[in-house]
Amino acid sequence: MSTDAERAKVAGYPKGAVVVQGTSAVITTTTAVPIIAAPAAGVSTYITKLHVCNKTAGETPVLTFQDDTGTPIVFMYVAPGDPAVAGGGEKTYDFGPAGLKVTAAKSFDAEATTTTGDCYATAFGYQL
Prior knowledge:
- The chain is mainly beta.
- The chain has one domain (20-127): Sandwich (Jelly Rolls), CATH 2.60.120.
- Helix content is 6%, strand content 40%.
- Strands 1, 3, 6, 7 and 9 form a five-stranded antiparallel β-sheet that branches.
- The protein is globular.
């Protein structure tokens, strides 16, 4: 099995980066659900890919992806019309090797603007 440093090098991440992956619990309510837990103080998470799927046909929620600061910083919304939230749909978003930087020492979360069916999100990236 390869080490974090070896995986980070293959993925093109900066030297010293630790590869991370996290999958949310079911995103069903307006309560934020963590996807990647907060790292240690002074360490930031960089999201390079985000896979979103909606397992419930007939449900088209608006999902918000954000950090968990006091006033969350929103990175993106996924809204009806996007294949990721069409009933039974899914989509992967690619943010490139640099990724979206989450506020240092904060988790990367998701929440729905309305109660919804079974939506999930998996985030890939690194911490540095």
